[in-house]
């Protein structure tokens, strides 16, 4: 199967420049391209899997990086371009866990300040219908098996370096929350 890059359009967003978003979308496109390239290479190497055993192992391991880079960016971009309001059944459920939605946001913001590159994800364990915020390093290290990603906050420096200094990560995170299109997150919860 060949994967196709999704297209996203955004209104003017305070705190997130078009230049930054365009550069980030190009990086996203790279993940989609690499997913397809890797899959094709694996198919090719499988034709002589003994000789290509080491290369196959490395490509197989790398696949999760490219794949998750593709999917997490799709989740991230889909939830940008809104008015920042967090309302709906999922928002109500989160608020009931945390006391109120601001306390949930505060936890996400605190996790987003952790050193290193990666993501803060809100994930849903459908087996128990419970949610939690988790940290994922790179794109693939730290996922919880069986959990669906509802919300993805990219805190790789490439997500904000055209608009902010590395020390201003908190300002970037605030800008993401200010431009959040929460309906996309709610949709992932209800579907
Ligand atoms: Fe990114």
Description of the structure:
The protein has six helices and three strands. It has helices at 18-46, 53-78, 89-98, 101-112, 169-178, 182-190, and strands spanning 118-125, 130-137, 147-154. The chain is globular and about 55 Å long. 26% of the residues are buried. It starts with 17 loop residues before the first helix and ends with a helix. The chain folds into two domains: 18-78; 89-190, 3-Layer(bab) Sandwich (minor pseudopilin epsh fold), CATH 3.55.40. The longest helix has 29 residues, at 18-46. Fe (ii) ion is lined by residues 24, 27, 73, 154, 156, 158-159.
What's the topology here?
Blueprint: H1 18-46, H2 53-78, H3 89-98, H4 101-112, E1 118-125, E2 130-137, E3 147-154, H5 169-178, H6 182-190
Antiparallel strand pairs: 1-2, 1-3
The structure holds fe (ii) ion (FE2).
Sheet with the most strands?
Answer: 3 strands, antiparallel
Uncertain runs are none
Question: Which descriptor suits the 3D outline?
Answer: globular
- Count the E strands: 3
Q: What would you give as the CATH superfamily of the largest domain?
A: Iron/manganese superoxide dismutase, C-terminal domain
The CATH topology of the largest domain, please? Answer: minor pseudopilin epsh fold
CATH structural architecture of the largest domain? 3-Layer(bab) Sandwich
Structural class: alpha+beta
Q: Note the beta-strand portion.
A: 5-15%
Binned, the helix content reads 40-55%
Rg over CA atoms: 18 Å
Average pLDDT reading? 97
What sequence of helices (H) and strands (E) makes up the elements? HHHHEEEHH
- Number of helical runs? 6
Strand order within the widest sheet? 2-1-3
Bound molecules: fe (ii) ion
CATH C-level category of the largest domain:
Alpha Beta
Work out the count of structural domains.
2
Query: How many angstroms separate the termini?
Result: 24 Å
